[in-house]
């Protein structure tokens, strides 16, 4: 129940549907309007989709009424998030009633719903897990939890190699999620531990990734960690026309035609896109540094600014004086939600400043743009290392501190660094090298989802396996 999970799941529904598989989406009243446009567009293609609504027990879980999506949590983040997950676990009973009624052949459920594996087992059907992240992050997290390299360095800032993980990946202690060692003892760490254990009892995991992007880690996950997995991405590529791309997630705060018109007037590879996903919140001081840094870089840009706290929304204290007048025609500020995939895939796009949410990274890879990595929370620091140390299609902005709360990000990046990094991905030989590596990956991504491509084939294999399972269960 967060955009970064719901968006790729909706794309997955479309992919199943385009292969003739009927799907039923289970959601809650407040989340329904966020997905209904995309569902309608997919149905218009002749795809069979049913939607079932379950009441979200916000009040019973101690949440304000209507708090049914993680992005609705803006205060007391840790306490409210724990309550939020408590609320989701109360959905087991209504889900089981739905399973009784709909009799599906399989459940695909997000990692944050570990209890769905038990629910599925009661009905003798398989449960597939969707993590919404990379093979790389899953493998890194497992290696860190197993070998605890962060306990063997003498300071928070001393880099260590992640033992066992292919590729000599370096991290520091402060970049690790505090649940990485699984000894944090908090509720969220416990939930993630459950999710990890349940994965072994589930039918397997579907990844929004493609084999050629991270072959060593896809192999490691399957062969060394012994997990069953299917890579079916990039799922965003199932959206072929502009309207589909613009319908992902929330209602965009900018008219897509206006946005395209603005981009059409720009030279190829000349615009930087800055976006921190659907949850991370930067404070006014940090936004001000971005504004000054990007202006000083001399590059054209689209910058998505999303402030979480309602009272801050009205205030524009994050913009230098006269900024918008000076950047007229050169920069576009989107306050709220941008049609990200539509923007990234435009030929004018030259670089992406990203918070390293997995969807954003994959969308950036698919678009073939070099990135400035600016991880904030969750598994984003792992994703950063894939981009900078393995794929070499980006440079780190230099943040060191994993944020326990996405609404209280501590690390602060100065304007000079932002300016420097933007220039590094946009101009010069190194930028060109990164860009050409990124473009090659973008082409591979497209091939992966075409007929006989790696993701296309793995998805077919998954469906075939589910069919065999269904007929064998029916026979017994
Ligand atoms: N997104 C978007 N417009 C925005 C912000 C985000 O379309 O203004 C989409 C983005 O394309 C991606 C998802 O929201 O598909 C964000 O997921 P990600 O994993 O990158 O980050 P999260 O929001 O989960 O931190």
From TrEMBL:
InterPro entries according to UniProt: UDP_glucos_trans, UDP_glycos_trans_CS
Keyword Transferase (UniProt): yes
Transmembrane segments: none
Record-listed E.C. numbers: 2.4.1.-
This protein's UniProt keywords: Glycosyltransferase, Transferase
Keyword DNA-binding assigned: no
Family (UniProt): Belongs to the UDP-glycosyltransferase family.
Protein name in the entry: Glycosyltransferase
Organism per entry: Xanthoceras sorbifolium
């Amino acid at each position: 129940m967060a955009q970064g999970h719901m968006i790729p799941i909706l794309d997955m529904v479309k992919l199943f549907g385009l292969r003739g598989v009927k799907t039923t989406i289970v959601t809650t009243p407040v989340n329904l309007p966020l997905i209904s446009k995309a569902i309608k567009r997919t149905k218009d293609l002749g795809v069979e989709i049913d939607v079932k609504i379950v009441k979200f027990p916000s009040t019973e879980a101690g949440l304000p009424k209507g708090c049914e999506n993680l992005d609705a949590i803006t205060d007391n983040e840790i306490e409210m998030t724990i309550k939020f997950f408590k609320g989701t676990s109360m959905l087991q009973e209504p889900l089981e009633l739905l399973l009784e009624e709909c009799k599906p052949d399989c459940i695909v459920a997000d990692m944050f719903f570990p209890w769905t594996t038990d629910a599925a087992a009661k009905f003798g059907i398989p449960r597939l897990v969707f993590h919404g992240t990379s093979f790389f992050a899953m493998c890194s997290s497992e290696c860190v939890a197993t070998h605890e390299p962060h306990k063997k360095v003498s300071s928070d800032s001393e880099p260590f190699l992640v033992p066992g993980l292919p590729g000599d990946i370096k991290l520091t202690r402060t970049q690790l999620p505090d649940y990485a060692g699984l000894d944090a003892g908090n509720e969220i760490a416990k939930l993630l531990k459950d999710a990890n254990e349940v994965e072994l009892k589930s039918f397997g995991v579907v990844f929004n990734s493609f084999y050629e992007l991270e072959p060593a880690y896809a192999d490691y996950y399957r062969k060394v960690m012994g997990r069953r997995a299917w890579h079916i991405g990039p799922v965003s590529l199932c959206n072929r026309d502009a309207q589909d791309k613009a319908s992902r997630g929330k209602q965009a705060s900018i008219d897509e035609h206006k946005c395209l018109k603005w981009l059409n007037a720009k030279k190829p590879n000349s615009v930087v896109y800055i976006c921190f996903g659907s949850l991370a919140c930067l404070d006014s001081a940090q936004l001000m540094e971005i504004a000054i840094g990007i202006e000083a870089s001399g590059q054209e840009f689209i910058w998505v600014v999303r402030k979480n706290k309602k009272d801050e929304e009205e205030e524009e204290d994050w913009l230098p004086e006269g900024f918008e007048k000076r950047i007229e025609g050169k920069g576009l500020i989107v306050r709220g939600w941008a049609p990200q995939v539509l923007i990234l895939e435009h030929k004018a796009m030259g670089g992406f400043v990203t918070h390293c949410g997995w969807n954003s990274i994959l969308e950036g890879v698919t678009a073939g743009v070099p990135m400035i990595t600016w991880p904030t929370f969750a598994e984003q620091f792992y994703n950063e290392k894939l981009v900078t140390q393995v794929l070499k299609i980006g440079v780190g902005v230099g943040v060191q501190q994993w944020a326990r709360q996405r609404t209280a990000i501590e690390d602060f990046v100065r304007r000079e660094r932002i300016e420097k990094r933007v220039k590094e991905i946009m101009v010069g030989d190194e930028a060109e090298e990164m860009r050409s590596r990124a473009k090659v990956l973008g082409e591979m991504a497209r091939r992966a989802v075409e007929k006989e491509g790696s993701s296309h084939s793995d998805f077919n294999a998954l469906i075939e396996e589910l069919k065999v399972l269904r007929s064998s269960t029916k026979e017994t």
